[in-house]
Request: fold
Amino acid sequence: MSVVSPRDPVADLRRIAFLLERANEATYRVKAFRSAAATVAALPAEELAERVAAGTLAELAGVGDVTARCITESLAGEEPVYLRRLEATEGADLQGAAAELRAALRGDCHVHSDWSDGGSPIEEMALAAVELGHEYMVLTDHSPRLTVARGLTPARLRRQLDHVEQLNAALPDGFRVLTGIEVDILADGSLDQEDELLERLDIVVGSVHSNLRDEAPRMTRRMLAAITNPHLDILGHLTGRKVPAAGTGDKGHRAGRTRPPSDFDVEKVLAACVEHGKAVEINCRPDRLDPPKRILRPAVEAGCLFSIDTDAHAPGQLDWLGNGCERAAMCAVPPERVVNTWAADELLAWAASHK
Reply:
């Protein structure tokens, strides 16, 4: 008679949380599974087994009826039903050129942590990126004037740089967190952080977050000023649009809220990106999918560089890269012009070349 080996309930709970994040489900659902995983991880194995036998798991802080059932099934050697259903409804795999492009991506250049408006520590985001096979992750928390997103003051950004240096020494070989920021492009086109700090960062993503309904001439001048700034590397979510997305998403990115794209001279902005060697971001968030294909196609024809980024605010969202790869493949984006198909050293050399 064969003996069924128990599964790892912590790994199963974290996998469920990851898949819920990837599906853009409600934050409270994700937190329920992450909280349960943390509780189980801190519990002695003997007590865990006793509680399973007695049916008292749900009496623990952070464990509810659903997560208790998952833990019980996992320890019995069964894939939890909740996890099995999620795995079965993941959706179709990428095909053809989109799959090849996804396989070529070495990292993600737009990622947030709980230092600003993300929901997870830098360490957790980094380890999720490692599990996805990435070689690097650019940490791009927000800049000071975006107070609603807890943007980093210069002092907090300096502390973060020290923290990342220590973290990199402890991460698995072959992976590193690159320093960065998603800096606000202000009304006059200047960047919302001290030049000395921008100079220190590996990658700078610049995005417009305010006055998105400015008239086209003003918005064009604003974007052109940012593009010509030597510190900017990637122009983030180009049009600022919001589109309907499934699920309720994470804090500050609620699905169902729509916003039309900003109005600007697309031809001038794309030409400036080419002239100054800056990349146009292909934002993978289901509620952004920015730029629209009607702008992405001319960007390819203009000769732009691109960066396919998740704009992730939680670990599971790091697996949204496929959204951008599908759009890039539809618009015939050449993989060699996608900067995060490059090795980290090549990416850093490119960023340094226009500073």
